[in-house]
């Protein structure tokens, strides 16, 4: 398991955060990128922060995860019609960009992020 401190500053402070227009979109590359480049920070025995960069807009982010026995992430594949294929023993984790929506033109009121989403499995 890889652990590291969370990124400095708020989740949207990444210097490479691109002001792309909001678009609800997914791509198998998104999950692959997050699996390849995430870090885990253990907060408590079974509580972690997944620290990652949005594969679409580049915003640094962290998501809390409370899952007993969780040790790593792996690609589950792109969701098909909103449903991801998963093994019978691993938990599917839908993820999405949750950066500041105001940087992305067209982001709906009350929403955040650039619109990118992907699915991984917790193993």
Outline of this structure?
Residues 1-13 have a biased composition (Pro residues). The chain is mainly beta.
What would you call the quaternary organization?
A: single chain
- Amount of beta strand: 25-35%
Distance between the termini: 11 Å
Output mean pLDDT: 81
Largest sheet: 3 strands, antiparallel
Number of strands: 6
Number of H/I helices: 1
Number of domains: 1
Class by SSE composition? mainly beta
Fraction of residues in helix: under 10%
Biased composition (Pro residues): 1-13
Region (Disordered): 1-26
Keywords: Plasmid
Please tag this protein with its features:
123 residues, mainly beta, three-stranded antiparallel sheet, 1 helix, 28% strand, globular, plasmid
How would you describe the overall organization of this protein?
Residues 1-13 have a biased composition (Pro residues). Residues 1-26 are annotated as: Disordered. Keywords: Plasmid. This protein is mainly β and 123 residues long. It has one domain (28-122). 8% of the residues lie in helices and 28% in strands. It is built from one helix and six strands, in the order αββββββ. The protein has one helix at residues 28-37, and strands spanning 39-44, 47-53, 60-66, 73-75, 91-96, 117-122. The strands form two sheets. The protein has a three-stranded antiparallel β-sheet, with no helix packed on it. It has a three-stranded antiparallel β-sheet with strand order 4-6-5, covered by helices on one side. The protein is globular and about 40 Å long.
List strands and helices in order, with pairings.
Elements: H1 28-37, E1 39-44, E2 47-53, E3 60-66, E4 73-75, E5 91-96, E6 117-122
Antiparallel strand pairs: 1-2, 2-3, 4-6, 5-6
């Amino acid at each position: 398991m890889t652990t590291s401190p969370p990124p400095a500053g708020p989740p949207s402070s990444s210097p490479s955060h691109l002001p792309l227009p909001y678009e609800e979109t997914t791509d198998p590359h998104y999950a692959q990128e997050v699996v390849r480049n995430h870090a885990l920070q253990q907060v408590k025995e079974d509580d972690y922060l997944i620290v990652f960069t949005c594969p679409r807009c580049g915003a640094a982010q962290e998501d809390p995860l409370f899952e007993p026995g969780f040790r790593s992430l792996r690609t589950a594949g792109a969701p098909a019609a909103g449903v991801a294929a998963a093994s019978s023993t691993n938990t599917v984790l839908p993820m999405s960009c949750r950066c500041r929506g105001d940087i992305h033109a067209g982001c709906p009121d009350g929403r955040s992020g650039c619109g990118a989403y992907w699915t991984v499995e917790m193993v």
